[in-house]
Amino acid sequence: MALHTPPLRQKNPHLPFGDHQHSRFYGQDILSVNQFNREDLDYIFGVAAEMQEMVRRVGSFDLLKGKILANLFYEPSTRTSSSFTSAMERLGGSVIPINEVRYSSVSKGESLPDTVRTLECYADVIVLRHPETGSAALAARYASKPLINAGDGIGEHPTQALLDLYTIQAELGRVDGLTVTMLGDLKYGRTVHSLARLLSRFNVRIHYVSPEILRMPTEIIQELKEKGVAQSEHAHLEEVLGETDVLYVTRVQKERFSDPAEYDMVKDSYVITPEVMRAAKEEMIVMHPLPRVGEISMDFDDDPRAAYFRQMEYGLYVRMALLAMVLGKA
Ligand code: NCD
């Protein structure tokens, strides 16, 4: 059945008294990194740094007291789902968790637009993860409350890219001038799709290292080329590891393969070990959105360059910032 798609509505048009000046993203959806310019990024990261400081000092506070988040997950998640829950609760709000859509009316055949229109009766903001590219944009058209894309198939994962960029800035002190190497499944990995786009706002060089069948989609390479980003594709990590400032490792996305034999062929293409990392700079970082399934050896975890666990923590502060912003409280 073809869905009737309503036009975009202005969300939350009535700003509460006093919220005008500091509510850049009030009532807005977060669907793609393309909606953020550098000034927006500075603003988000400024708020995230304040959140980080508040969590360190007091743990939780009441900025979003009385607000409710619907956390709607049609795909598995540990970090994204629980960091949004933690973010909301640390801000004094509460959460409707729907992470087993099997037990919701989705299993009775309810459409995404209807599920979203239901949840917004009970919640002030919706976080959505869904296996189809474009699903977040579709859901946002039906919702009058702000909707945050927590991963739409192989499309985008904007909040992950924001926390990735925050991590780079926090760990290395800058983004301009860096060489970023993305490794692994660049075809199906939505985190690298969003991160590459977000990095195009900066003066960076990007290397893509992947097996032939998992190369970065040409439309993304083209998009970045038009923005003047220096990019190159490689089959072997050794070619670029020595000049890399940020090594962004990804999991081969097993669930996106139609042919299991193809997955088996490429699943162990690259493994980061202390030996491999001897060829890398002393001052650089290794990131991973996690979960990892063998592409970074646990023997590397104690290396100061291993930033992936710190990256998860930064995610909490960035998601606190985003929730406060879309709800008009930042
Ligand atoms: C990523 C995702 O879901 O796209 N995980 C995450 O959100 N931290 C990466 C992955 O699943 O490999």
UniProtKB/TrEMBL annotation:
Record-listed E.C. numbers? 2.1.3.2
Q: Which reaction does it catalyse?
A: carbamoyl phosphate + L-aspartate = N-carbamoyl-L-aspartate + phosphate + H(+)
Per the record, the pathway is: Pyrimidine metabolism; UMP biosynthesis via de novo pathway; (S)-dihydroorotate from bicarbonate: step 2/3
Listed binding positions for carbamoyl phosphate are 79-80, 129, 157, 160, 290-291
Q: Does the keyword Transferase apply?
A: yes
Q: Which UniProt keywords apply?
A: Pyrimidine biosynthesis, Transferase
Q: Which GO MF terms are attached to this record?
A: amino acid binding; aspartate carbamoyltransferase activity
Q: Name one GO biological process term.
A: amino acid metabolic process
Domain Aspartate/ornithine carbamoyltransferase carbamoyl-P binding per the UniProt entry, residue ranges: 29-169
Q: Name one Pfam family in it.
A: OTCace
Q: Which superkingdom?
A: Bacteria
Q: Where does L-aspartate bind?
A: 108, 190, 251
Q: Which residues form the Aspartate/ornithine carbamoyltransferase Asp/Orn-binding domain?
A: 176-325
Quaternary structure and partners: Heterododecamer (2C3:3R2) of six catalytic PyrB chains organized as two trimers (C3), and six regulatory PyrI chains organized as three dimers (R2).
NCBIfam families, from UniProt? Answer: asp_carb_tr, PRK00856.1
Q: What does this protein do?
A: Catalyzes the condensation of carbamoyl phosphate and aspartate to form carbamoyl aspartate and inorganic phosphate, the committed step in the de novo pyrimidine nucleotide biosynthesis pathway.
What family is reported?
A: Belongs to the aspartate/ornithine carbamoyltransferase superfamily. ATCase family.
In its UniProt entry, what is this protein called? Aspartate carbamoyltransferase
The species is Anaerolinea thermolimosa
What's the gene?
pyrB
